[in-house]
């Protein structure tokens, strides 16, 4: 089990993933940390906390918008995107 952020990054980069999602895989780590950082700021500065499910949804929406360089435009395209992320 990784003990710090550096070890997490190293273990994350060692995963073998299909070439079709390799580009997305590299962004997932950043989306997770960006979502956690935003949640931390909401809690610290606004006194607002969200549920785990909302945090996960925000992470996936960030990832989607980064991959397609556009905001979420339809539920169907988002659900197709999420289902494409499953590991075999």
Which features does this protein show?
single chain; 88 residues; mainly alpha; 4 helices; 68% helix; 0% strand; Reverse transcriptase zinc-binding domain-containing protein
Cα distance spanning the termini: 22 Å
Radius of gyration, in angstroms, nearest whole number: 14 Å
Please count the helical segments.
4
Alpha-beta classification:
mainly alpha
Topology (SSEs and partners):
Elements: H1 5-13, H2 22-46, H3 52-68, H4 75-83
Please characterize this protein's 3D structure.
By secondary structure, this protein is mainly alpha-helical. It has a domain of 48 residues. 68% of the residues lie in helices and 0% in strands. It contains four helices and no strands. Helix 2 packs across helix 3. The mean pLDDT is 83.
Describe the structure concisely for a colleague.
The protein is mostly helical. It has a domain at 22-69.
């Amino acid at each position: 089990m990784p003990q710090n952020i550096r070890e997490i990054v190293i273990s994350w980069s060692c995963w073998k993933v299909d070439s079709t999602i390799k580009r997305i895989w590299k962004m997932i780590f950043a989306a997770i940390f960006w979502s956690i950082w935003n949640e931390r700021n909401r809690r610290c500065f606004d006194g607002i906390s969200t549920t785990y499910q909302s945090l996960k949804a925000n992470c996936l929406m960030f990832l989607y918008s980064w991959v397609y360089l556009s905001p979420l435009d339809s539920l169907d395209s988002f659900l197709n995107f999420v289902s494409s992320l499953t590991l075999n």
